[in-house]
Amino acid sequence: MTDAHTHNLAAGPDAVINIEPDTQLPSEGSFSTGVHPWRSAEAATLWPLVETIASDPSIVAIGECGIDRLRGADMETQTELLRRHAILAENLAKPLIIHCVRAWAELLAVHASVRPSVPWIVHGFRGAPALARQLLDAGMHISLGEHFRPDTAAIIPPGRLHVETDTSSLPIREIAARVSAARHTKL
User: Fold this and answer.
1) What share of the chain is helix, strand, coil (3-state, %, to 5)?
2) Overall number of domains in the chain
3) Domain that residue 73 falls in
4) What is the CATH number of the domain that holds 12?
C-alpha cells in the first residue's frame, strides 16, 4: 500500500514523501517536490531548484503545487506556476500532486489547457461528490487523507483513488481502512 502524499520523512519505502525544493534531497526514498502555493511568492528562488532536482530518479512526482485562494501569491502568479509544474510533469512523465483551495475553476481551466497525459492527483480532497465528479470527468485522480467525506469516497473509481497521510499522525493503514469502510470494500 502506497502513501500517495506525506510530509513525514520517516514514512518508509511505501510512501511518496514531499520535500521542499530548498532542502537536501535524502539519499533514499521516493519523493515529490514543487513550489507549494503557500510559498508561491518565493517562486523566483524556488522554481530553479525544482527544475534542477525534478529529473532525479528518486523524485517520482512533481508537486505539491497548485492554487490556494486563501494563502500565497496572487491568483495569476499561482496559476502560471501551476502551469509550469504541469509542463515539467509532462516533460518528465511524472504525476502531478495538486493542492487546491477554493480555486477549482482555475484548476480545471489549467488542466484543460495543458491536456495532460500524466495523472494529476488532487491531494487531501474533502469536497462533495459533485465536485469530485467534475474532477474525475476531467480525468484527474483523487487522494483522500484522514478527513474525507464518505459519500465522496464511495464514487471514486478504484484506479483513480489514492490514500495519503499528508500531515496526519495516523498510519496509512488506518486511513486506508477508513476509506475502505466508507466504500464498503476490503483493503
Assistant:
1) 40, 20, 40
2) 1
3) 3-183
4) 3.20.20.140
